[in-house]
Amino acid sequence: MSRGGALRRLAAHEGRWLVSLVWWVARRRIGVAPGERALGYAAAQAAFVYGLAFVCVVETVGLSALFAGEPAVHGVLLVLDVYTVLMVLGLQAAAVTRPHVLGAGVLWLRDGARRELRIPVGRIASVRDDLRFSRSEARAGDAATEGTAAGVAEFAVGGQTSVTVELVEPVVVVGLLGRRATVGTVRFHADDPRAAVRALREAMAGADDGPGAGGASVTRP
Protein backbone atom coordinates (compact mmCIF):
# COMPACT_ATOMS: atom_id res chain seq x y z
CA MET A 1 0.00 0.00 0.00
CA SER A 2 1.21 3.52 -0.81
CA ARG A 3 2.18 5.96 1.91
CA GLY A 4 -0.82 8.12 1.03
CA GLY A 5 -3.18 5.16 1.36
CA ALA A 6 -1.70 4.23 4.73
CA LEU A 7 -2.09 7.81 5.97
CA ARG A 8 -5.72 7.88 4.83
CA ARG A 9 -6.44 4.66 6.71
CA LEU A 10 -4.75 6.00 9.85
CA ALA A 11 -6.77 9.22 9.59
CA ALA A 12 -9.96 7.19 9.25
CA HIS A 13 -8.96 5.19 12.32
CA GLU A 14 -8.43 8.39 14.30
CA GLY A 15 -11.86 9.59 13.24
CA ARG A 16 -13.49 6.34 14.34
CA TRP A 17 -12.14 6.35 17.88
CA LEU A 18 -12.96 10.05 18.26
CA VAL A 19 -16.54 9.32 17.20
CA SER A 20 -16.56 6.38 19.61
CA LEU A 21 -15.86 8.75 22.50
CA VAL A 22 -19.07 10.64 21.70
CA TRP A 23 -21.10 7.43 21.45
CA TRP A 24 -19.52 6.18 24.69
CA VAL A 25 -20.60 9.29 26.58
CA ALA A 26 -24.07 8.89 25.08
CA ARG A 27 -24.07 5.22 26.23
CA ARG A 28 -24.90 4.00 22.74
CA ARG A 29 -23.43 1.28 20.51
CA ILE A 30 -22.45 1.53 16.86
CA GLY A 31 -23.80 -0.92 14.30
CA VAL A 32 -26.04 -3.00 16.56
CA ALA A 33 -29.49 -3.14 14.96
CA PRO A 34 -32.66 -4.17 16.80
CA GLY A 35 -32.87 -7.95 17.07
CA GLU A 36 -29.11 -8.41 16.71
CA ARG A 37 -26.97 -9.73 19.53
CA ALA A 38 -23.99 -7.76 20.78
CA LEU A 39 -21.05 -9.81 22.05
CA GLY A 40 -19.02 -7.51 24.27
CA TYR A 41 -15.27 -7.83 24.71
CA ALA A 42 -14.15 -4.61 26.41
CA ALA A 43 -14.21 -5.75 30.05
CA ALA A 44 -10.90 -7.62 29.81
CA GLN A 45 -8.94 -4.45 29.06
CA ALA A 46 -10.89 -1.95 31.17
CA ALA A 47 -8.64 -2.05 34.25
CA PHE A 48 -5.48 -1.64 32.16
CA VAL A 49 -6.92 1.22 30.09
CA TYR A 50 -8.24 3.15 33.09
CA GLY A 51 -4.95 2.62 34.92
CA LEU A 52 -3.01 3.90 31.92
CA ALA A 53 -5.32 6.91 31.61
CA PHE A 54 -4.76 7.73 35.29
CA VAL A 55 -0.98 7.59 34.81
CA CYS A 56 -1.29 9.91 31.80
CA VAL A 57 -3.36 12.40 33.81
CA VAL A 58 -0.78 12.38 36.64
CA GLU A 59 1.97 12.96 34.08
CA THR A 60 0.01 15.85 32.58
CA VAL A 61 -0.34 17.53 35.97
CA GLY A 62 3.31 16.96 36.80
CA LEU A 63 4.60 18.37 33.50
CA SER A 64 2.26 21.34 33.76
CA ALA A 65 3.75 22.21 37.14
CA LEU A 66 7.30 21.58 35.93
CA PHE A 67 7.04 23.83 32.86
CA ALA A 68 4.68 26.44 34.31
CA GLY A 69 7.33 29.12 33.75
CA GLU A 70 7.76 28.30 30.06
CA PRO A 71 4.44 29.05 28.33
CA ALA A 72 5.40 27.78 24.86
CA VAL A 73 6.70 24.43 26.09
CA HIS A 74 3.85 24.15 28.57
CA GLY A 75 1.26 24.72 25.85
CA VAL A 76 2.71 22.13 23.47
CA LEU A 77 3.06 19.50 26.19
CA LEU A 78 -0.46 20.17 27.45
CA VAL A 79 -1.95 19.61 24.00
CA LEU A 80 0.04 16.40 23.53
CA ASP A 81 -0.84 15.09 26.99
CA VAL A 82 -4.55 15.82 26.63
CA TYR A 83 -4.58 14.14 23.23
CA THR A 84 -2.81 11.11 24.72
CA VAL A 85 -5.42 10.81 27.47
CA LEU A 86 -8.21 11.05 24.88
CA MET A 87 -6.49 8.43 22.72
CA VAL A 88 -6.21 6.00 25.65
CA LEU A 89 -9.86 6.52 26.58
CA GLY A 90 -10.75 6.22 22.89
CA LEU A 91 -9.30 2.71 22.92
CA GLN A 92 -11.84 1.68 25.53
CA ALA A 93 -14.63 3.72 23.99
CA ALA A 94 -14.16 2.01 20.62
CA ALA A 95 -14.23 -1.42 22.25
CA VAL A 96 -17.38 -0.65 24.23
CA THR A 97 -19.32 1.02 21.43
CA ARG A 98 -18.22 -1.42 18.70
CA PRO A 99 -18.88 -4.91 20.10
CA HIS A 100 -18.92 -8.07 18.02
CA VAL A 101 -22.38 -8.51 16.52
CA LEU A 102 -24.33 -11.67 15.68
CA GLY A 103 -27.35 -11.08 13.53
CA ALA A 104 -28.97 -11.55 10.13
CA GLY A 105 -26.93 -14.70 9.51
CA VAL A 106 -23.60 -12.89 9.87
CA LEU A 107 -20.95 -12.82 12.60
CA TRP A 108 -19.42 -9.35 12.58
CA LEU A 109 -16.11 -9.29 14.46
CA ARG A 110 -14.54 -5.97 15.41
CA ASP A 111 -11.26 -4.93 16.97
CA GLY A 112 -12.31 -1.58 18.40
CA ALA A 113 -11.78 1.04 15.70
CA ARG A 114 -8.88 -0.81 14.07
CA ARG A 115 -10.42 -3.48 11.85
CA GLU A 116 -13.43 -5.70 11.33
CA LEU A 117 -14.47 -8.90 9.60
CA ARG A 118 -17.92 -10.14 8.56
CA ILE A 119 -18.36 -13.91 8.31
CA PRO A 120 -21.67 -15.41 7.13
CA VAL A 121 -22.75 -18.00 9.70
CA GLY A 122 -23.14 -20.56 6.92
CA ARG A 123 -19.39 -20.41 6.35
CA ILE A 124 -18.59 -21.47 9.93
CA ALA A 125 -17.63 -25.15 10.31
CA SER A 126 -17.34 -25.17 14.11
CA VAL A 127 -17.06 -22.91 17.13
CA ARG A 128 -15.76 -23.64 20.61
CA ASP A 129 -14.96 -22.01 23.94
CA ASP A 130 -11.16 -21.89 23.78
CA LEU A 131 -9.13 -19.64 26.09
CA ARG A 132 -5.71 -18.88 24.58
CA PHE A 133 -2.98 -16.31 24.96
CA SER A 134 -2.50 -14.26 21.82
CA ARG A 135 0.49 -15.07 19.65
CA SER A 136 3.08 -12.31 19.94
CA GLU A 137 4.32 -12.45 16.35
CA ALA A 138 1.32 -13.37 14.23
CA ARG A 139 -1.62 -11.07 14.77
CA ALA A 140 -4.29 -10.87 12.06
CA GLY A 141 -2.97 -8.97 9.07
CA ASP A 142 0.63 -9.62 10.04
CA ALA A 143 3.11 -10.85 7.43
CA ALA A 144 3.39 -14.20 9.22
CA THR A 145 -0.14 -15.17 8.15
CA GLU A 146 -0.53 -13.22 4.92
CA GLY A 147 -1.33 -15.49 1.99
CA THR A 148 -1.49 -18.62 4.18
CA ALA A 149 -4.77 -20.54 3.91
CA ALA A 150 -4.09 -22.29 7.20
CA GLY A 151 -3.39 -18.99 8.97
CA VAL A 152 -5.10 -17.73 12.09
CA ALA A 153 -6.67 -14.30 12.64
CA GLU A 154 -6.82 -13.08 16.21
CA PHE A 155 -9.15 -10.42 17.60
CA ALA A 156 -7.47 -10.48 21.00
CA VAL A 157 -8.22 -8.36 24.08
CA GLY A 158 -5.89 -8.16 27.04
CA GLY A 159 -3.51 -10.52 25.25
CA GLN A 160 -6.00 -13.37 24.99
CA THR A 161 -8.81 -14.87 22.94
CA SER A 162 -11.62 -17.03 24.29
CA VAL A 163 -13.56 -18.31 21.26
CA THR A 164 -12.19 -20.20 18.26
CA VAL A 165 -14.09 -20.33 14.97
CA GLU A 166 -13.07 -22.83 12.29
CA LEU A 167 -14.18 -21.88 8.78
CA VAL A 168 -15.42 -24.03 5.92
CA GLU A 169 -12.95 -22.26 3.64
CA PRO A 170 -10.40 -19.45 4.13
CA VAL A 171 -11.30 -15.77 4.25
CA VAL A 172 -9.21 -12.64 3.83
CA VAL A 173 -8.65 -10.29 6.75
CA VAL A 174 -7.53 -6.72 6.08
CA GLY A 175 -5.35 -5.05 8.72
CA LEU A 176 -5.28 -1.44 9.82
CA LEU A 177 -2.74 -0.43 7.18
CA GLY A 178 -4.25 -2.57 4.44
CA ARG A 179 -2.10 -5.67 4.82
CA ARG A 180 -4.06 -8.78 3.81
CA ALA A 181 -3.94 -12.22 5.38
CA THR A 182 -5.73 -15.38 4.25
CA VAL A 183 -6.93 -17.38 7.24
CA GLY A 184 -8.93 -20.52 7.92
CA THR A 185 -9.33 -20.01 11.66
CA VAL A 186 -10.52 -16.94 13.51
CA ARG A 187 -10.08 -16.44 17.25
CA PHE A 188 -11.74 -13.65 19.17
CA HIS A 189 -12.34 -12.60 22.75
CA ALA A 190 -15.79 -12.32 24.32
CA ASP A 191 -16.58 -11.25 27.87
CA ASP A 192 -18.90 -14.25 28.12
CA PRO A 193 -17.39 -16.86 25.77
CA ARG A 194 -19.83 -19.64 26.68
CA ALA A 195 -22.82 -17.46 25.87
CA ALA A 196 -21.15 -16.39 22.62
CA VAL A 197 -20.53 -20.02 21.63
CA ARG A 198 -24.13 -20.97 22.45
CA ALA A 199 -25.49 -18.08 20.41
CA LEU A 200 -23.27 -18.95 17.46
CA ARG A 201 -24.24 -22.61 17.54
CA GLU A 202 -27.91 -21.68 17.64
CA ALA A 203 -27.37 -19.38 14.66
CA MET A 204 -25.50 -22.14 12.81
CA ALA A 205 -28.33 -24.60 13.48
CA GLY A 206 -30.86 -22.14 12.10
CA ALA A 207 -28.81 -21.00 9.12
CA ASP A 208 -30.38 -21.75 5.76
CA ASP A 209 -28.68 -22.58 2.49
CA GLY A 210 -29.75 -19.38 0.75
CA PRO A 211 -27.56 -16.67 -0.74
CA GLY A 212 -26.94 -15.18 2.71
CA ALA A 213 -24.92 -18.25 3.65
CA GLY A 214 -22.57 -17.83 0.74
CA GLY A 215 -19.15 -16.21 0.69
CA ALA A 216 -17.59 -14.34 3.54
CA SER A 217 -17.06 -10.64 3.15
CA VAL A 218 -14.51 -8.32 4.66
CA THR A 219 -15.24 -4.72 5.61
CA ARG A 220 -12.11 -2.64 5.71
CA PRO A 221 -11.56 -0.44 8.74
Structure keywords:
221 residues, alpha+beta, four-stranded antiparallel β-sheet, four-stranded mixed β-sheet, 4 helices, 8 strands, 40% helix, disordered C terminus
Alpha plus pi helix count: 4
What does the radius of gyration come to? 19 Å
> Could you say which overall geometry the principal axes of the C-alpha atoms support?
elongated
Task: Report the sheet with the most strands, covering strand number, pairing sense and barrel closure.
Answer: 4 strands, antiparallel
Number of strands: 8
The secondary-structure element order is HEHHEEEEEEEH
Amino- and carboxy-terminal Cα gap: 14 Å
Widest sheet, order of strands: 1-2-3-4
Nearest-integer average pLDDT: 85
Strand content: 25-35%
Helix content class:
25-40%
Helices and strands: which structural class? alpha+beta
Ranges with pLDDT <50 over ≥5 residues? 136-150, 209-221
